[in-house]
Amino acid sequence: MTTTGEERERWFDHTEIEPRWQRTWDEADVFRIDDDETDPEYVLAMFPYTSGSLHMGHVRNYTITDAYARFERMRGESVLHPMGWDSFGLPAENAAEERDTNPRDWTMQCIDSMRDQLTEMGFGYDWDRELATCEPEYYQWNQWLFKQFREEGLVERQAAELNWCPSCETVLADEQVEGEEELCWRCDTPIEAREMDQWFFTITDYAEELLESLDDLDGWPNNVREMQRNWIGKQAGASVAFEVGEHGAVDIFTTRLDTIHGATFFSLAPGHPVAQEIAEDNDEVAEYIEMAEEADEDELDVTSGVFTGEYATNPATGEEIPVYVADYVLTDVGTGALYAVPAHDERDHEFAEAHDIDIVQVVEPTDDADADPEDIDVQEAAYPEDGVLVNSGEFDGLASAEARDRFVEEFDGEHRTEYNLRDWGISRQRYWGTPIPMIHCDDCGYVEVPDEDLPVELPEFVHTTGNPLDAAEEWKQTTCPDCGADAVRETDTMDTFVDSSWYFMRYTSPGMEAAPFDAERASDWMPVDQYVGGIEHAVMHLLYARFFTKVLDDLDMVNGVREPFTNLTNQGMVLGEDGNKMSKSLGNGVSPQRIIEEYGADTARLFIMEAAQPEKEFAWSPEGVQSAHSFLQNVYTLVSEYADGEAGTDADPENGDDIADYVAREIDATAANATAEFEDFRFNHALQAVRELVSLLRRYQEATTPDADTFERGLATAAKLLAPVAPHAAEEMWAELGHDDLIAEAEWPAAEAPADYEMERQLIENTREDIRDIVDTVGIEDPQTITLAVAPEWKHRVLDLARNADGNVVGTVMQDEELREQGEAAADFAKELAGRAQSLDEQLPPEREQAALERAAWLVEREFGADVIVQSPEEADPDLVGKAGPGRPAIDIEE
Ligand SMILES: [Zn+2]
Ligand SMILES: [Zn+2]
Hints:
By secondary structure, this protein is of the alpha+beta class. 41% of the residues lie in helices and 16% in strands.
């Protein structure tokens, strides 16, 4: 669409209309939802971390939920679409240090600024439900829930080797350590290992349910479910005991019990109690353990280890095998002890080669395996696949799976399941988080802060290199709730993932003073129907939130809600114009603020939604932004011209009713199509349909004086279909069309495609394509008249028979008495159809085909500048009719 200067005069001024409609929505409480609503549609975006400014990723994330929430609201749903702030965390402490302020003031300033930016984007939230996790009104419930969890036996204090970031001076969860180099997720510093006492949530108690119920989360992307499955890492195996010298039986866990006859050495983790016992009388072992404990995880390779001088007895063979202490055995995985089978495990193989230990093959490929037993040389490399047993005494020839089962009983073992999932360490040695509500008394040990003393509020921020809570002496010193003696507060705060594990429940009753949320309402309103956010949360946030939800249900706080999010969408990235991730160093970032100022929020929203489906990434495109901008302005112009009585031309073609019928059908079809696409989150397809409708309306008013009802309904439909994505411009159009109410609250257009719409659309498309072919091939410069002749009834009958004939089309057709009357012609046509029996689509009956062509004739007239005549088989020249088939009218073009 090109734009003339005259049209431009009618453009709206986004800097005027956007704030005006934002105020109007706010005053009309459009986005507020009453507490007494029953089971509203719950649409939620992952709440933002309070960095102070929105980036394009946020804009995309929130545009998706806002568009969907607005769509559902117009469809008559009551919609819960809240917003809040993930406002605890280290960056606020760092910002406070840099700016010589405190985390609270800094965070509150960030929240104010981000709230303004969200409002400027036109996002419709129920701000009455706003929450910030750094407010005592919120985090007191983290403390209360901590105590509830503790009562349920889900809180433990464990000494553990933790990931320590020396730069952030904080402990990191495993999930916060990135890549093989094991770098801090925030600052990319290599992490170190430290042993500390920490508070843990025993999420492992829920490992099996967290894994199992993934199968039922049909509304989640498969990749996220797979990432969680891998993270939980269930391993079915067995445990058996090896006697280790005078130290007694040592349990091992293995998933490959079938290889037990090939065990040639035994390994203990440095932290294993038996290793520690041996170290008491063995300096070499003691030295190794000390060295291993101090080393960074990546400093030692898999061959690092020391022989203890002790031997373990293999229960399968009765053989004595040497016992090593080796760092590659992890203390907290399995039992911290293992028997090693170098022939069938790569890690064991490497270790055996380095320490010159025997390698004995006990499994070889089965006959139907890809590998040839002759090609396997376990002295060279481990063969880790299943197969059949060899060198296993009486068990030779047994299949691996069978052996695993049988050996459990044979060697007094137990079937056992292990998970990679570890308990969730929630202690953070930082200030800006929820204080853990515990007090340490020298006599009583750890004592809970009584409910009546909650919340334990954060003291004033102290500038220090360590943990500011540790330095807050006055705050730290307290008395023991049990014995009244002097005692100290726990100075660790909670991982901020605790905050985000239940915030979606708090939105149901944000002001609640007696409980974290209203149990009855949360039970009714949860789960979230549509949850949208980044893929980076696939494991941590989404797993913890699932864990919390299950525990809260077990605490009878959300009746029967065991999963928090029914449908999940991970939006793709918005890349820079150069196709790279937006970054400061590349200078390819686009500021939402600048786009709002220059083009308006609607343009940004429309461009983002048209660019790709939500899950796909796309590159920023100034042309795309321009196109979205002028499209909105041009639709508005069309509406405004109509409102001013300036639509249409003087032309008054006699087929005016047909044209109106055609347009009316397209309006209905567009509404139906766009509705289905909105439902499926394919907003770009919906918007493409709206663009096509607008283009049709434009052609309509160029061709004739449009029928007022039809044309206005077309404009209103376009405005409504645009309203979820470009809400300000849509309100402006709606008002221009004379409505006093808000389009945000208007009824979504009735969405049913007209009968046989698809067949009709296909007919028109094919016919226009055929005309173009003829004009091109014959080289017709200036067509005067185009005649379209519809095929006679009997050809439709042949088609029907052909579609239902089993193979013998011609035979079936010629058995029909009426068709036999058509003689050769029927046989020939039947032969023609038989040739393409696979693709005989159903077609409109002749009179409906004729009506459809008459309705669409005006489009052909406009395209080719010729008169169009549609003829019935009776009216048309018999020679011409002879060339017509069902769904393929005969075409005659006169120059
Ligand atoms: Zn760090
Ligand atoms: Zn005490």
